[in-house]
Amino acid sequence: MSQGKLYRRMLGYVKPYSPFLVIVALMSFIIVGAESLSLWFSASLVNALFLPDKVVTVKTSFSLAHINEYLKYWTQTFIKRGTVFESLKLVCILMFSTFFIKNLLTYLKTLLVAQINTYIIRDMRNQIFNHALLLPVTYYDRNRSGQITSLVLNDASAINNSLLSTFDKLIVEPLRLIFFIGTLFIISLKLSLMVFIIFPLVAVVISEIGKTVRRRSRRNLERVEGVTSVLQETASCIRAVKMFNMFQFELGKFKTENDRLNSATMRNIFFVSLSSPLTETLGVLVTALLLWFGGKEVLLGHSLSAEDFVRFLTFLFITFQPFKSLGSVNNTVQGGMAAAQRVFSLLDIGIEPLTPFSRERVPSFDRSIKFSNVSFKYPGTDVPVIRGIDFTVHKGQIVAIVGSSGSGKSTILDLLPRFYDIQSGVISIDGKDVKEFDLVGLRHLFGIVSQETVLFNETVFNNIAYGLENASESEVIDAAKAANAFEFIEKLPQGMQTIIGERGVMLSGGQRQRLSIARALLKNPAILILDEATSSLDTESERLVQAAINTLMTNRTALVVAHRLSTIAHADQIIVLEGGTIVERGKHDELITLSKRYKSLYDMQFASPSP
Questions:
Q1: Nearest to 316 by CA among 39, 31, 34
Q2: If you write DSSP's letter for every residue of 352-380 in order, what string do you get?
Q3: Which domains does the chain carry?
Q4: Digit-coded pLDDT (tens) for 556-593
Q5: Strand intervals (E) in 276-376
Q6: Which stretches of the chain score pLDDT less than 50?
């Protein structure tokens, strides 16, 4: 994406606040005008104090060639009073007044820009997070967990900083340059041309530094993402880190990423810091040359007076400031563009068509779910995970899927609510392709209880009622009782209002799983998806959870992946997978009698130890 297109896209965040920016621009115009007037009047002190009797003559007809004389004439006419002290007093009052107006408006403008700034970064973070929520599961499979965090916190701030902290300068500094440079040409065309033959060389140097800063800033943001990912991953897996005594290893990973960030930051600082002193050095070189040529003009009594030379130098020195400021603006903008490239790369990723929930868009389920010759491979891979899958689940049936690790059991469950879309074949509900349903409505059909329990750093009540805004306390309690969870909930410090920590860290595995089942019971889904819901539990917890699952499956259609084959012996149909294909199907007794893959799995799990 070109720099121009990238910056225009960044400006899209500013557009809603354009009326405020018009006010900022008007205030900037007044500020620069007041500053220019104060500088003009300050140079008039030369005549007011040291040449009070000097009379500035002016031709009767106005012309651009003599605009400097006209301005000096009207300035002298305005400030000249009866005595030199009165003239001095007036000049001092004018200088103070113009600077007071300038600084008052600068303060008010700063407040207004700060308010716009907070609104823009709020909008930007909302957009990034909203888009992240709509991204398909495949995005999260392929990217580090810290990337979204880094984009929302760091990259959004970098873009905002490049927009608002520079937007004000991009209004004020060009205005100052127009005023100041215009005044320089009015005072002396010859000296001004000399200055602006050299200045383009300075601009080329600044531009090259800016390009380097952009590259370095992008690498810096990538290093920040690396540090963020290590922090998040270590914090979320802290028990494993401590159990396996891997704190030194994790510290080493963090130090490596932190060192990379430090190196990238220092390289970036090197180029950012070079811009300002280099610009200033070149400016001093220009000044020295001007002092030589301009001083000769005054001393030899040519076309430049002492007052003109003082005024020219005053405006020239103050002109360096906006040039220097715009140089730093370029560095900041380049850093923001590096962040914008990363953010817009995320925002350009296709999203799931998720719409606000509407019960009218929830499909009916009256007959069956059917997988017809379904094949699927994960994005970016060449080998299919499942191939030619065919089976039907009739309403009210319990269908279990078994097989060795990696055979594609959980993948089949993920395809039904369209966490992934298949490459070939059809998955249908009541004869209609699931791709034709509203995605939010389709997912409302399912209740999912998986091995990895999903809980939030919220109250027990809110975790059970997650996704159901109007759930009553009695309904939540009934669901908790049915899931064998109410007994332990009552013993928590605040009962239903106890906050259970990130991912339910304050609860045991069995307790977390029972809350997940209570949530599914409260939702009362038409179809249950149970993915190894008891695989990581101890015997007592498994017994309680399995009892809750049995309650959950009563009078419901269920697809079950279970590691303990004894829990699915009552299933209406058992599908046996091997290498991504169905190798057997039938009821438990039928498959045992068949004495093939299912019996082998069953025997391995329940074989008695040798005497």
A1: 39
A2: -------GGGSPP-SSEEEEEEEEE--TT
A3: 3-347 (1.20.1560.10), 353-445+568-611 (3.40.50.300)
A4: 899 999 877 878 888 999 999 998 999 999 999 999 98
A5: 368-376
A6: 60, 608-611
